[in-house]
Write a structure and sequence with these properties.
60% of the residues lie in helices and 4% in strands. By secondary structure, the chain is mostly helical. A two-stranded antiparallel ribbon has the order 1-2. Strands 3-4 form a two-stranded antiparallel ribbon.
Length: 324
């Protein structure tokens, strides 16, 4: 029965496995990393200017040379954004390919790993994590971040760039050319601003991306650390699989740091823009961390919906104490 189960697993795998050469995957990864570097150059430059200001070079940001460099980097980043969404989809689908092409066959080769184990440990987690990741990424790209309305009230500020109403918490995005409510940052990976309207989707995309990299790191580490147990050919311990472990560890580490950073900003009521400019908390500054978290992610009683790729109603107003 176990042999029959293994044979069935191999037949299923033969239908799922593509036949792309691994060298091709390496070239694609190199192109994706290059595009990624081009896109994040303005962010690294802004962080550098912020650190320089903290060290006492406060006039550096306003200098003509610094402004010209920032403008050039923004133009390069804007052009690179045309391929950034394809890059992100590639970064999601390539690990899926590596999972089924390189890692899953090793587990199928072990007699003790039944088809039920393969479904519970490989297929279901992969479908659940990747479907949520792609779904939330799509909505982070297409959902409106929440643009400022044209309605004006007495003594309300007006944006000098787009001439729209600019109440407290609204900031102008130089890339989108519009004012965004609770603007966090302009994300090059979604080619969209992150604001009040789509912050929840962006947060969930980062969360499921972290889950995906953690899951991938565990899989490749388990496969790489038990070479003899699989009793397969020598490909298991080649340099390519060592590189897979290194890439998975790097991706998991980077996303872990970014997720922790995003959670801290949310709990303290800061946006990424406010953090980079050394500003005070600008989202519900007089509320508790728990209230701020629900204000940005929605009330806690609907968080179970985030386990599934479901459409969600927008958060219309910041939550108040009596609403929680």
């Amino acid at each position: 029965q176990a042999l029959r189960s293994d044979t069935l697993g191999q037949q299923i795998l033969s239908l799922l496995r593509p036949s792309f050469p691994m060298d091709f995957i390496g070239v694609v990864l190199g192109i994706l990393v290059f595009i990624c570097v081009l896109v994040v150059l303005p962010l690294f430059y802004e962080i550098t200017l912020t650190l320089a200001s903290a060290l006492g070079f406060k006039n550096l940001r306003a200098s003509g040379k610094a402004l010209r460099i920032a403008k050039l980097l923004l133009e390069v980043s804007d052009k690179a954004e045309r391929g950034i969404q394809a890059m992100v989809v590639g970064m999601i689908t390539i690990p899926i390919y590596v999972h089924f092409q390189e890692v899953l066959p090793l587990f199928l080769g072990r007699r003790e790993d039944s088809i039920v184990h393969i479904i519970l440990v490989h297929l279901l987690p992969s479908v659940w994590i990747n479907s949520n990741m792609l779904f939330n990424y799509y909505h982070a790209c297409v959902d409106s971040p929440g643009y400022s309305e044209n309605s004006m009230q007495e003594d309300m500020r007006v944006c000098a760039h787009c001439r729209r109403a600019k109440p407290a918490g609204v900031h102008h995005c130089g890339t989108c050319k519009q004012c965004v409510v609770q603007m966090d940052h302009h994300c090059p990976f979604t080619a969209n601003c992150v604001g009040k309207g789509n912050f929840r989707r962006f947060f969930l995309f980062v969360l499921y991306s972290w889950l995906a990299t953690t899951y991938a790191f565990w899989l490749v580490l388990a496969a790489h650390g038990h070479c003899d147990a699989f009793e397969l050919d020598a490909r298991l311990c080649t340099a390519w699989r060592t590189r897979i472990v290194a890439i998975a560890a790097l991706a998991c580490g980077v996303l872990t740091v970014f997720l922790i950073f995003l959670v801290i900003l949310t709990l303290t009521g800061r946006t990424t823009r406010a953090f980079l400019n050394w500003e005070k908390p600008d989202i519900m500054p007089n509320q508790s961390a728990w209230n701020r978290l629900q204000a940005r992610l929605g009330p806690v009683h609907i968080w179970w919906l985030y386990l599934f790729p479901f459409p969600l109603a927008p958060i219309a107003e910041p939550l108040r104490d009596q609403q929680l």
